[in-house]
Amino acid sequence: NWGQRTVPTGLDSVIAIAAGALHSLALKPDGRVVAWGQNTYRQRNVPAGLKGVVAISAGGYHNLALRENGTVVAWGRNNDGQANVPSGLTGVTAIFAGGFHSIALKSDGPLVAWGRDSDGQVSIPEGMQVAQPGIIRPDLLQIKVQANDGANLVAATISVTLVDDPDEDID
Fold first, then answer.
1. Residues 55, 27: contact at Cβ < 8 Å?
2. N- to C-terminal Cα distance for the chain?
3. Burial class (CB in 10 A: 0-12, 13-18, 19+), 14
4. Among 64, 95, 100, 125, which residue's beta carbon has the most beta carbons within 10 A?
5. What's the pLDDT score for residue 128?
6. Which residues have a Cβ under 8 Å from the Cβ of 103 and sit 6 or more positions away?
7. What DSSP assignment string belongs to 72-102?
8. Average pLDDT over residues 30-34
9. Exposed, middle or buried by CB within 10 Å (0-12, 13-18, 19+), for 149?
């Protein structure tokens, strides 16, 4: 146990969670990221001054944070370049941290990937993009967390609704 199962005391009002191999992340409503668990590769060392975060993803031993301005911040293990965000990457709407690679979805549809490519995990097929990238509406984000004693997280379910128009009424 590297502490990944022990939620930090006082951690409340969480809007998103992510779990890496031996570490965990939580996103607070004010855009701050909290990390706990193993720190062998500095995956628990949230970059100083990181704020305005709207999404998080935990890879094997690295993390990604999507900022409200569409840029990505990465930290933790970087043995295969998985924490080297491509220069000039902007307009990102979604992120995913894999075991040793990372992927970002840009607002106009293309995917950008970096890190280990030993099995083609960052070799995105030519022309592949998301047909209609959506907008995540925070008011439609639902998180259900169940804990066995208030300190140890047992399960979490996250439901996201993507819409084309952020002002669209959803029934």
1. yes
2. 44
3. middle
4. 64
5. 66
6. 95, 96, 111, 112, 113, 122
7. EEEEE--TTSTT-PPTT---EEEEEE-SSEE
8. 96
9. exposed
Q: What is the pLDDT of residue 111?
A: 85
Cα diameter, the chain:
49
Distance CA 38, CA 141 (A): 29
What is the distance between the alpha carbons of residues 107 and 93, in angstroms, rounded to a whole number?
A: 6
Return the bridge partners of 63, or none. 58, 75
- Categorise residue 81: left if φ over 0, alpha if ψ from -120 to 50, beta otherwise: left
- Segment 142-171, tens digit of pLDDT: 444 444 444 444 444 444 444 455 555 655
What pTM was computed for the model?
0.76
| Residue 110 DSSP label | B
Asked if residue 27 lies in contact with residue 17, where contact means CB atoms within 8 angstroms, the answer is yes
Q: In this structure, are residues 91 and 107 in contact, taking their beta carbons and an 8 Å threshold?
A: yes
Structure tokens at 26: 């939580």
